Amino acid sequence: MKCSNRYIKYLTGLLMMLFSGMHSFAQQPTLSGTWVLQPVLPSDTAAGARPSISFNTGNSSFTGFTGCNDMSGNFKTKDGDLSFAKEIRLSKKICEGYNEKEFVMNLLRVNGYKFQDGILVLLINTTPVSRWTRKEQQAAL
């Protein structure tokens, strides 16, 4: 009986470790999905809409909205590093009072990211450049 009790305790402990590890793994944030800019300056939404970005980590591509034009391109990521390919494709709408060129240049300067309380923080070296909130998926009716 002692052997079986020890075996049960061992299995119970092993299962608890496995399940607690799975729980913490499930809670890890991921870059995949759609993120919406948290505006800091009035110029961040001067065109009347908030920028967004959707990362597809499966094929290392992104689509999004600059606040004025649709955008798309590719990115690379590894161990907290993030870089956008130099060729970001943009639609051709003109928006008054919005510095889209600066927005795109900031994306091109990004070289890292981190998650902070569920917020995606894009970084240039260790300096935060922008903060993004995950866009909630709408349930299908």
TrEMBL record:
- Alphabetically ordered keywords of this record: Signal, Stress response
Q: InterPro entries from the entry?
A: DUF306_Meta_HslJ (IPR005184), HslJ-like_sf (IPR038670)
Instruction: Extract the signal peptide range.
Output: 1-26
Domain DUF306 intervals: 31-123
Q: What is this protein called?
A: Heat shock protein HslJ
Species name: Sediminibacterium ginsengisoli
